[in-house]
Amino acid sequence: MTSAGDGPDRRAELASRLDRVESRITAACAAAGRDRADLTLVVVTKTYPAADVGILAELGVRHVGEARHPEAAEKVTACADAGRAGLTWHFVGALQTNKAAAVADYADLVHSVDRLKLVTALNRGAERAGRTVQCLVQVNLDPDAARVGTGGRSGASDETLSAVVDAVSQAPSLSLRGVMAVAPIDADPAEAFGRLAAVATEVAAAHPGADLVSAGMSEDLEQAVAAGATHLRVGRAVLGERPPLG
Ligand SMILES: *Cc1c(COP(=O)(O)O)cnc(C)c1O
Q1: Confidence (pLDDT) at 243
Q2: With contact defined as beta carbons under 8 Å apart, do 72 and 103 qualify?
Q3: What residues in the chain have per-residue pLDDT under 50?
Q4: Ligand 1, atom 8: nearest CA belongs to which residue?
Q5: 130: buried, middle or exposed (CB in 10 Å: 19+, 13-18, 0-12)?
Q6: Helix (H) or strand (E) segment spanning residue 65
Q7: Is 119 helix (H, G, I), strand (E, B) or coil?
Q8: Which of 82, 104, 181, 233 has the fewest CB atoms within 10 Å of its CB?
């Protein structure tokens, strides 16, 4: 955990980093002939304190991403207590089935839905909470299937993707909104996001309204914008380097 604090220095640092990311997004939109308004920046605050989320909210950030439960739940509660209503919470990390119901209690969108058991568990949790959880199906873009499940590069495979998509679309307390992916390590992100775009087009054709594409992180947001992403998940470029995840 960093102890970044919430003093004026941290505020200035986050403001300047956020400005730089915003400039990158604007430039990428201009290069791709896209409208900035069609992109949502999700600032991924995992490992950073709720105080940072508070500063980001004051700086105009409305979409916050978290990757681990219960860290995410604690921050949602802290921010609600601090009167930071109006934030939309995105759960973007690999999600264990036994934590799905808890996440369905507070996540507005879950980007990492990649298997049938998770669909069942999320739906049950959302139903119990009396909520509808928006879901993106995570697509595995790593051609080396042996790496699936290692290093967090998870996602539905070619074989299972359509079953997961259909299950989400039929789950009464879930809403299918689109697809998500992480570019594989060592891959060309432009090529990988191009493949995601092809999958996204198929999913949206079969499921009107499921047209969100979550792609792009600190290192590859430009390629994601060029490939048609609607949601960028940016952590380090806004918050600074994280200590290695345990
Ligand atoms: C942490 C994380 C991000 C943000 O990554 P950065 O490299 O910090 O921008 C995006 N997506 C997922 C799934 C993550 O876990």
Answers
A1: 75
A2: yes
A3: 1-2, 149-152
A4: 235
A5: exposed
A6: strand 63-66
A7: helix
A8: 82
Q: Which atom of ligand 1 is nearest to the CA of 180?
A: 13
Atom 5 in ligand 1: residue holding the nearest Cα: 235
Q: What is the pLDDT of residue 1?
A: 46
What distance in Å separates the CA atoms of residue 27 and residue 225, rounded to the nearest whole number?
10
Question: Residue 131 is encoded by which pair of tokens?
Answer: 């909520």
Q: Are 135 and 180 in contact (CB under 8 A)?
A: no
Burial class (CB in 10 A: 0-12, 13-18, 19+), 146: exposed
Q: What is the pLDDT of residue 4?
A: 52
Q: Determine the distance separating the centroid of ligand 1 and the alpha carbon of 113, expressed in angstroms.
A: 16
The residue assigned the tokens 């079953």 is 163
Separation of alpha carbons 87 and 45, rounded Å: 13
Its pTM stands at: 0.94
Cβ 95 under 6 angstroms from ligand 1: no
Q: Which two tokens stand for residue 172?
A: 């009464």
| CB 155 less than 6 A from any atom of ligand 1 | no
Q: Ligand 1 centroid vs 198 CA: distance in angstroms?
A: 22
Q: How far is the CA of 146 from the centre of ligand 1 (A)?
A: 22
